[in-house]
Amino acid sequence: MSAKQKEVIIADDHPILLKGLEDFLKGLGLNIIAAESNGLDTLMKIKRSRPPLAILDLEMPGLTGLEVAKACKEEGIDTKFILLTLHKELYFYHQAKDLNLSGYILKDFALNDLSKAIEIVLDGGTFFSEKIFDEIENSSLNGEETQLTPSEKKILRLIATGLSSKDIANKLFISERTVDKHRSNMISKLNLEKKHNALLIWAQKNRSFIE
């Protein structure tokens, strides 16, 4: 492997994780030419250096890892991208696939997967964490159970506009408790993390699905 082929840019907005990633990659013999904590600086460095590989956190200030990769691809930059993420939601995976990204690794399994992923990606292949395929298989096996009902889609459309459970309840003439029950069911069906705004983010990114 030539010196140029060993160049990599990394990015993560968590300093400890960024340092750990940098040390791990140096141990593999790679040359870290930039280690950034936000998407805008990362994009600028990739445009300037055009490294063979960039390993990015999915969620960063400024631009997400997906947005950085998309911007580079639109400009014809040949850098291969591996995304690191805590997200197991399938819509993030599908976005990565739609962009033809080279790798998508869950942080839970990063150290186990990363060295293998780098070797495969630099050789022209793709690598996605096996856990993602478990999620896809489970989704496929339980397809009927994961289908959203018309009522749930109606509520999701309102969630996408930023309305609270109370506002949605008033608009649909149902109780706030009923709305919250629908929210809980949809989070389970969509395999979302149980955190604030998870449904709002999903609904806004998947408007075409719920229209």
UniProtKB/TrEMBL annotation:
Molecular function via GO: DNA binding
Domain of life: Bacteria
Pfam families: GerE, Response_reg
InterPro entries in UniProt: CheY-like_superfamily, EvgA-like, NreC/VraR/RcsB-like_REC, Sig_transdc_resp-reg_C-effctor, Sig_transdc_resp-reg_receiver, Tscrpt_reg_LuxR_C
Protein name, per record: Two component transcriptional regulator, LuxR family
Domain HTH luxR-type: 141-207
SMART domains found in the cross-reference section: HTH_LUXR (SM00421), REC (SM00448)
Keywords: DNA-binding, Phosphoprotein
Domain (Response regulatory) ranges: 7-122
Residues bearing the modification 4-aspartylphosphate: D57
Family matches, as PROSITE patterns: HTH_LUXR_1 (PS00622), HTH_LUXR_2 (PS50043), RESPONSE_REGULATORY (PS50110)
One GO term (biological process): phosphorelay signal transduction system
